[in-house]
Write a structure and sequence with these properties.
The protein is an alpha+beta fold. The protein has five domains: 35-104, Peptidase S8 propeptide/proteinase inhibitor I9 (Alpha-Beta Plaits); 151-391 and 563-624, Rossmann fold (3-Layer(aba) Sandwich), CATH 3.40.50; 394-555, Sandwich (Jelly Rolls); 640-721, Immunoglobulins (Immunoglobulin-like), CATH 2.60.40; 732-818, Sandwich (Immunoglobulin-like). The protein is 14% helix and 33% strand. The protein has twelve helices and 46 strands. The protein has a seven-stranded parallel sheet with strand order 8-9-7-11-13-14-15, sandwiched between helices. Strands 1, 2, 3, 4, 10 and 12 form a six-stranded antiparallel sheet that branches. Strands 17, 21, 22, 25, 28 and 30 form a six-stranded antiparallel sheet that branches. A hairpin with a 2-residue loop joins strand 19 (417-418) and strand 20 (421-422). Helix 10 (569-586) packs across helix 11 (592-601). The longest helix is centred in the C-terminal third of the chain and has 18 residues, at 569-586. It is elongated and about 175 Å long.
Length: 836
Amino acid sequence: MKGKISAVILLPIYFIIFLTITSTGFCNDAKETPYVPNEVLVRFHDGVDESQKEFIRSSLKASLIRIIKSIKVEYWKLPADRSTEEALEILKNNPLIEHAEPNYLSKPLTIPNDPQFNKLWFLQNTGQKVNGKTGTLGADISATEAWKIETGRKDVIIAVIDSGVAFDHPDLKNNIWTNPGEIPGNGIDDDGNGYIDDVHGWDFVNNDANPSDYSKTFSSGGHGTHVAGTIAAEGNNGIGISGVMWEAQIMALQIFDIFDENPANAYEYLMRLVVDSLKIISSVDYAVNNGAKIINCSFGKGLYSTFENDIFSLANDRGVLVIAAAGNDGLNNDSGPKYPASYDLPNIISVAATTERDTLATYSNYGETSVHVAAPGGSDLIPNIYSTTPPQREILFYDDFESGGSKWLIGGGSQISFGGDQLYKPWTIVYSPLFGSNVAVDSVGYYWNFTTSYMVTANPINISNCRGLHFHFDIYHELEYGRDYLNLEVSEDNVDYFKSNVVFTGFSDGIQRYREWAGSEFDLDQFYLKFNLVADNTTPYDGVYVDNIYLTGIPWVFSGNEYDYKSGTSMAAPVVSGVAGLIWSYAPELSHIQVKDIILNTVEVLPSLSGKVASGGRVNAANALLSLIPPPTATAGSNQEVDGSDEVVLDGRGSTAPDNIDTYQWAQIDGPTITIKDAAKSVARFTAPDAGNDPLELLFELTVTDKWGQTDTAQVKITVREINQPPTALADANQKSVSPGDKVTLDGSGSSDSDGTITAYAWSQTDTTGKSVALSNPVAIKPTFTAPEITETITLIFKLTVTDDRGDTAASTVRVTINKTSGGGGGGGCFVQTIQ
């Protein structure tokens, strides 16, 4: 692969002018001004025509730069002599203007870090020691339990609005959103969304399709890449780490451009840390219109923006959930709001940070009503949320001139000669009181007229293995303006030099830091760098002083060490974004409000968060997902009454679960201890003990568990009745003398039960006379029959069996004699005898 140098060569004149403007125009007020100077955001009332709009813009000499069509907001740049305050004062009194406001600034919400450990305690905390501090068992989001249910899906798109994302990181590249409507690199807006070649998102800082998070310094740390990794570093891929989601699509939207660690002026320092409202509005608009379901906002400010509120409200209308960091000031957002976390919109979740010991981090903002929930964000003192970062910069060339000039060759020439030799003053190294160090100077004292004097690298600088080149050096110069110049020139072979547009002339305003950034590749593998002073024949001056020449690049090949620690509510917010993504992966039919409610209603309530966040707890991914799965329903059967020595069946087969019951467990809750057979099965048994003279109650509980570990219980009561006194049966009949054809009534009404009631009567004929009679109702107390015709006297025997309310029985018989009718017709009859 080849490096990139074309921007280094061709663009710096613009950059020098920019530095000059910023240093003279904004330096004094940079830290105090919470918005971009000379810019406003404006919305007209509906019905205002374009000619009226143009008249108002012209009256302010404002330039229309962009329109955010979704919320009808125009972005204007004002002339240098028209302040933001003046413009707003005029606009607020214009009846055609609905609202106007500054282009407010926000900053990323992170804590400086010093990477030392490789522990993802926020996903599973076993009480491990992290940087000398021991965590608390379970002070995590229960990710490992959640992953048994869901690990994420590619159709969940999460927009990371931040410093960009290193989308070729080995642990992220398979989880990066790819715009399905865009053809990479053809220079055409294929999907018509207003952005050309926006394959993975958009860089709203440099207005290009490369939101790559490749920092220009050694210390910026890849804020956006770190956030993206916490959400969805690819899981189960055998390398690095896992995010909360193993799979997702991360949409990279860059709004921060973290610049040099040693800025040239205060405004530059401010712009290194902040972002204006326009970029926030534009990025949210992009996310909403390109399929994002979740927007992660790990940044914030203390000023309310109507237009920001409007764009986040539009996200709500489109069903997009916004996860926002509460802030790192350790303050109460109820009394001092932090935006966007504090916008009063139903789709926003404001997130505080907890430590590895489940305490509210001391740096974290809070708010009993305005901050919704907490999530792991890292230790109070030492950053310990581990995640992905971009590749570390490599130094391709550096010289501070403290070790001599061995890295350079010098030369030059002149139109003035003496004895045939051209005369010029060569570059040399001297100590400069102005710099306080050794520097390279074009000459000792004033340079000569009609001369050229150069220093060129002794060896070519190899850039073949790097991209994202960053070139800077410190310079002080006194040159005749418009006549004498310092040119930067490059050559691939040290023969043919190309004069770039990097040109210095005139007097610098003290020491300046020149820098240039080249984010893409270009055609050279190596080059020689030449500083060449060219003077005419008029007025010479002191010349050029150069120091601290740096060229750095980002390796094309990842080493495997691109991970780092950070802490802050910036790190807590993506944890919640990941949990929201898991919920939507499992249940894509849910609305964004339902997802928010699930997150807030399934927190792990912590004493440390009481009165600090509205939910009172820290997010719990497992609880959130389990709330979507109906728990099992245990059924232990009906209560029973049994007698001693009975085999009792405990029946749990009526229990149900969406994914079947995983385990059954019967246990005795009350009563004398008995032994349960098959207690781990759906149907269990035991032998009832004797109760004695009083009933005995036994209570049993069935616990059923599904495969996710959710449980339900049901109880059943078994009453063992006291020892029963059997009933007494008494069979009788009301006739004493019966002849054939007579009606006989059997009578069991004399039967009794001393400790209960008789519940059943049963009559049967038991004699062997062969003369069977038909009883009117064999189960009646008093059934009847008709005496049969006989040829000789017979005795019929009837048995009465009575049953009491406990099922015990007793029997009694009665004999009925039917006499043979005598020839004289005299005195036949029936003899009745009862036998107990």
